[in-house]
Amino acid sequence: KIFRLPDGRVYGGADASEDIERLYRSLLKKIAAPALSHITALLMYPSGKVEIYEGNIWVKINEPFYAIGTGAAFAMAAMKAGANARKAVKVATEMDPYSGGKVLALQARK
To answer: Distance of alpha carbon 100 from its chain centroid, rounded?
Structure first.
C-alpha cells in the first residue's frame, strides 16, 4: 500500500484499505486530511522529511528510520541492526504472520 504522488512525495499506509484510499485522495486533492481511526500512514518528502499520520493529523518524525504496520517491530529491529528498508520489510514478512506479499520500494523524488 504505497503510492507516489505527482509532486514526488511517497505515501504509504497500513491497516484499513478504505482509509488508506481516503487519505491518499485527500493528498491528491490537496485538502485537509480527514479524521480516520483505522490507519497509520507515512509521508516521505524528497527533502528527506518524514511525517506520520495516526488519526487526524500529520506529525513530523525525527528518527533515522521508521516502520508501520503489523510487522513494524521486526522491520525496525532489522534496520537497527543495519538492514536497508527493503531488507527490513523482507525480514518483517518472514517473521510476522500478518505481513506478506511483494516488497515494493519507492524513493521520494522531485
So the answer is: 15
How many whole angstroms separate alpha carbon 78 and alpha carbon 30? 34
Say how many CA atoms lie within 13 Å of 26 toward its Cβ.
18
Could you tell me whether strands 2-4 and 10-15 are parallel, antiparallel, or unpaired per DSSP bridges?
Answer: antiparallel
How are strands ordered across the β-sheet holding 58-61? Answer: 2-4, 10-15, 39-44, 50-53, 58-61
What global pTM score does this model have? 0.84
Query: For the segment 26-81, what is each residue's pLDDT rounded down to a tens digit?
Result: 999 999 888 898 899 999 999 989 999 988 889 999 988 899 999 999 999 999 99
